[in-house]
């Protein structure tokens, strides 16, 4: 019984750490899919400790595989000890696959998002461009969250966000919306902080 509990704890810890390591990207993605807004940037701090969480996940899984594939012990009658579902190699491989999918989510999140850019036809004479320096983004899901927050604003023609560069480039009708309002939309609807705004007027 103690061995079964130990296996449950090992596998549960592996999945939990894998999930935690990608929360900074999973939460923004779920917000986009669910059509909700909110301060999802609260999980961006996980990015800094993500390598340690991934290492811990790998170590736990390696130890679990060692226990699963080490020579089986025999009981007093010389029979091999029977293994339940929690101790089976098949279940371990399933848990490993789940952990890998969770751990690598930031790398394929962008392929799961559709319609991340949107263009609206407005008066070209009033078009301006602003580059907003955004703090707190960690993956493609963060880009999509900011894009969605801005695309719904009247006067916004095009939004292109890059988490690598930490910026969001917005084309907008200056008579309908201002750079300051774009900044407020990002901070209020996503929780990310806008550090600086540059426009083609300055």
UniProtKB/TrEMBL annotation:
Give yes or no: UniProt keyword Transmembrane.
yes
State the superkingdom: Bacteria
> Which cellular component, as a GO term, is one annotated location?
plasma membrane
Main localization (coarse)? membrane
Would the keyword Lipid biosynthesis turn up in this protein's UniProt record? no
- Report the function annotation for this chain: Involved in mercury resistance. Probably transfers a mercuric ion from the periplasmic Hg(2+)-binding protein MerP to the cytoplasmic mercuric reductase MerA.
Q: What is this protein called?
A: Mercuric transport protein MerT
> Source species, please?
Sphingobacterium sp. (strain 21)
